[in-house]
Amino acid sequence: MMLPCHVTRVAMLACLLAPVMFAQKFEVSPFAGVTTGGKIPVDLQAADPANPDIPNTRWLGLGTGPNFGISAGYRFSRYFEGEARWSQQRTAGSARGEDGRGQGQRLSGTRVDQFHGNLLFHFREVQEAKIQPYLLFGAGVGRIAPTDTFQGTSTTFSFGVGGGIKAYFNRRIGLRAQFRYAPTKYDTGRSAVWCVQSGSCYTLPRNRDDWATIPNYWNQYEFSIGPIFRF
């Protein structure tokens, strides 16, 4: 029995599109891990010796703390994947000594959020490969917000560079481990960084000529791990 011509064409088209239609190119990955601290310089003269909440210091620091978040991506070619990623670190801000080292005196609990768009390059062409190492580059915004005592939330540019490995148990479920360098720029357009309700504030160094030799990012490193769900 001969099939009508248009039925045959539809069947052939379905066969050609089936690998694309059923390819699992979407991935969602919740994760958790740890993020290291960072520090920025402040003007010592801005400290208020009479206020115990504003100890004398030349550095404000962020401590190492846990992170968590979620990413959602789409693999649009054999090697490349685009993804949106949100992460949050729970840590504490501290006043540190002359060299900026150590934990220092705790000032306030702090949340560090990053909202990034990432591009992933996979080293293995075949999407169904069980083990897939990759490189990552992303950029977006970072939000650093004291959660108690201090005020001074800032939202500025941030980026991330790193890599990781994906291991798939089957076509739909896997595990992803990742390491990133993820700095957040601090807002040099604001004179005050963190302030208490009394009005005392830490400010950025007044001598702008020194800025060429001091960091203008909260430099942080992040490790995370979590499951992968493919659709």
What layout of secondary structure does this protein have?
Blueprint: H1 5-22, E1 26-35, E2 38-41, E3 59-62, E4 65-74, E5 80-96, E6 105-122, E7 131-146, E8 150-151, E9 154-168, E10 173-181, E11 184-185, E12 192-196, E13 201-203, E14 217-218, E15 221-230
**Given the helix and strand composition, which structural class is it?**
mainly beta
Give the DSSP E fraction (strand runs of 2 or more residues). over 45%
Oligomer: single chain
Number of strand segments = 15
Uncertain ranges: 16-22
Description:
The protein is built from one helix and 15 strands. The chain is mostly beta strands and 231 residues long. Strand 9 (154-168) and strand 10 (173-181) form a beta hairpin. The longest helix is centred in the first third of the chain and has 18 residues, at 5-22. It has an eight-stranded antiparallel β-barrel. The protein has a three-stranded antiparallel sheet with strand order 8-12-13, with no helix packed on it. It is elongated, with a radius of gyration of 24 Å. Mean pLDDT is 80; it is low at 16-22.
Key features of this structure:
eight-stranded antiparallel barrel; mainly beta; elongated; single chain; three-stranded antiparallel beta sheet; 231 residues
Give a brief description.
This protein has 231 residues and is mostly beta strands. 8% of the residues lie in helices and 55% in strands. A hairpin with a 4-residue loop joins β12 (192-196) and β13.
